[in-house]
Amino acid sequence: MQGKLKKKNATKSRPVLHIRPHSRKRKSPVQCQAETQSDYRTRSKQDVRIVVAGSTGYIGKYVTKELIKRGYDVVAFAREKSGVGGKQSSEQTQKDFKGADVSFGDVSSKDSLRKTAFSEPADVVVSCLASRTGGKKDSWAIDYQATLNTLEVAQETGAKHFVLLSAICVQKPLLEFQHAKLKFEEALQSAQGITYSIVRPTAFFKSLAGQVENVKKGFPYIMFGDGHLASCKPISEADLASFMADCVEDKDKVNEVLPIGGPGRAWSAKEQGQYLFKLAGKKERFISAPVGLMDGIIGCFDGLTRFFPGLEDSAEFGRIGRYYATESMLVWDDKQQKYVADATPSYGKESLEQFFERVMKEGLAGQELGDAAIF
Fold first, then answer.
1. What does each C-alpha distance from 15 to 4, 165, 169, 231 come to in angstroms?
2. In whole angstroms, what is the distance from residue 325 CA to residue 312 CA?
3. Helix, strand, coil: what percent of the chain each, to 5?
């Protein structure tokens, strides 16, 4: 595995692995001072101001509500038209985040950030910013540049700690959004005067929910290959939000890269389908799609991109689909050159089984897949 591993207890579940990247640069005196000056942790939570960037995103809204519930002085920073397709109004955002200072602006503009989110000094920044689609331009605009804008304005205004929502898949980067996220991680780790916690979750429950309704109706479950090409230990949105809020409070998570999954075992696509059919009381029906089919589609789009540049993202979306079909969302062990489920930390209360049982009964309200849906 890349870097030196250091085990810490996250919950009663499997311990959290704190990854210390081997490429980390020697800290300057200013960075060392930032590590030791944790003044905000000694104050009452209501006196600790936290800016949440990306507060209306899928995970961002859970994180914002968790921080409000814990009693922090929360600034929920968002676009005036937010949510999937920009359908959520500013009025709805204000209703959603009762108890927070809701601020509207543009993360692509440092000036906007200064005048709105950071109009008053903040102690902590929690960034849940992420590209909506994983397209090339959007990835660099949001996962890197907008997040860097937020960091630099936070530094200007004296913020002491930065909690970043990243992704476990950056440990094996093949996609544009992964490279963008990694470049920002490097900028954050070398930033002056501010500490960090980089959270790399596995899969979210919603990313595994796309075929629930089809299974309930008796339609086949679609998988790639034999259904065991990749596995994951997904984490619920609420549990991930709780972990990120812990990163604001816990000193043992300062200047750490933190892979995190949910409680329970790792699941392959075939095992997920089998469990859904069991819950639905339906006979198992699977359609196996060859990975080579995706390779052919990607190749076609790559060829067409030379003549039609607008198709560039279509090829990238194909690569994203292939990546998630063939790469596990688990900790990658460099020495063994494989993904290791037992090395993937567990945290939280809700298991994938409980989630599947709930959505089978109650439906998928709140689990909309939005722009990044594959199935």
1. 15, 19, 20, 19
2. 20
3. 45, 20, 35
| Distance, CA of 51 to CA of 120 (rounded, Å) | 10
Q: Which residue has the tokens 């998570």?
A: 253
Tokens of 61: 């809204």
Helix intervals (H) in the chain? 29-36, 60-69, 90-96, 110-115, 136-138, 147-156, 176-189, 212-216, 237-249, 269-280, 291-305, 312-326, 352-362
Beta bridge partners of 76: 52, 102
pTM of the entire structure? 0.85
Q: For residues 68 and 97, is the Cβ–Cβ distance under 8 A?
A: yes
In order along its 375 residues, the chain shows pLDDT tens digits of 444 334 344 444 444 555 444 344 444 545 444 444 458 999 999 999 999 999 999 999 999 999 999 999 999 999 876 665 667 778 888 899 999 999 999 999 999 999 999 999 999 999 999 998 899 999 999 999 999 999 999 999 999 999 999 999 999 999 999 999 999 999 999 999 999 999 999 999 989 999 999 999 999 999 999 999 999 999 999 999 999 999 999 999 999 999 999 999 999 999 999 999 999 999 999 999 999 888 898 899 888 888 888 888 898 999 999 999 999 999 999 999 999 999 999 999 999 999 999 999 988 776 554 444 433
Q: Which helix (H) or strand (E) holds 78?
A: strand 73-78
**CA distance readout (Å), 207 to 90, 105, 113, 228:** 27, 28, 31, 17
